[in-house]
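Margin note: ligand = adenosine monophosphate.
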Amino acid sequence: MANNLPLTIAVLGSHSALQILKGAKDEGFKTICICVPARKKFYEMFNLADEILTLDSFANFEKIEDELIQKKAILIPHGSLIEYLGIEKIERLRIPHYGTRKILKWEADRQKQREWLEKAGLNLPKIFHKPEDINQSVIIKFHGAAGGRGYFLANSPKDFYKKIKKHPNEKDYVIQEYIVGVPVYAHYFYSQVKKELEIMGFDKRYESNADSIGRVAANDQITADIQTSYTIIGNIPMTVRESLLPKLLEMGQQVVNVSQKLEPPGLFGPFCLEMIIDHNLKITVFEISARIVAGTNPFINGSPYTWLKYNEPMSTGRRIARDIKEALQKNCVEKILG
Ligand code: AMP
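Resulting structure:
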C-alpha cells in the first residue's frame, strides 16, 4: 500500500469493533480503537488494536478527529457510531468514512426508508397511522429504540391506550402489523470496487423477554402480567433453506439498485435486511440497516456462505478491510469513502 494513503482503520470500541479490528489486522492494516476509559482494559485484552485512544464520551468524537486524520485513519461506522454521534454529526465528519453517508438519511427517516424498500419491490408490514385503526395484532416500536427496548404488542385501540401509559415520554412511535413468523436477519455486502453483491450470513436475535416467554406456562404469563418485549441480548447464527437464497440475493440487489437512483453512488459495504418469514415462506421486510450489524459477530471466523465463497475465514469486518485494500491497490479509494 502506498504511503500517502490511509493505512489505519479506526473504530469506536462498541458494537462490532472486535470483528472490525480483527478483520483490519488480517488484511494488514494498523488499527485504532477509540473507547471510553472504563472499556480500555477490555479492548487491551484482545490485542487487536495497535493503539487505544480514550474519550470521556463518544459524543465528543470531534475532540480526537484531527489526531485520527493525522494518523491517516479511515473510520468504520457501526450502530454505536450512529447512536452516539447522530446523523448530522456524521454527515459533518471530516475524517475519511467507509460507506456512503448520504444513504443514512434514507435509513433514519421512516417514510424515506419505506419509499426506498417499496421501490425495491419488497413486501413490507402494513402501517396503522392512528391507534383507532388497530383491528389486529400490532407491534409498537419507538423511534431510535436501542435494540428493541420497550416495544410492545397490542390488538385493539383500548389495549394500545392501556399499554402506552407505561411510556409517557414516548411520542415518536410506529404501529406496525405484527407478522407471525420467524425473524431472519440477512447480512449482505455490496462492493463498489467489484460491483458485486454477496450474501455474508444470517442471524436470529436473542431477545428478552420475547425469547424467554415460552419457558413460562400460558397461565403463569397471564397471572404475572408478562408483556412481550424485544430488548436484544445477543445473536444466534443461522442458515436458511437453500431454495430461499436466490430470492434473498435478488432482494438485496434490488435494494442496492434503487439506492443508486435515489442517492448516487448508492448503498455499498455491509447492510442488513430484517425480515419475518411466515409458514407460507412469504417474506416481509420490516427494516434495513445500512451498515454492519451486530448479527455478523457470530461469524468472526466466517459464515457457512463466506466459507463457500472465500475458502478462508472472512468476517464482514474483514470483508470491509479487503474492500478498502482493493480500492487502495486499484487507486480508487474515493469509491469506498462516502
Ligand atoms: P427492530 O428493532 O425493528 O429490529 O425489531 C426488534 C424485534 O421486534 C425483531 O427482532 C422482531 O422479533 C420483532 N419485530 C419487529 N417488527 C416486527 C413485525 N412487523 N412483526 C413481528 N415481529 C416484529
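The longest strand covers residues 196-209.
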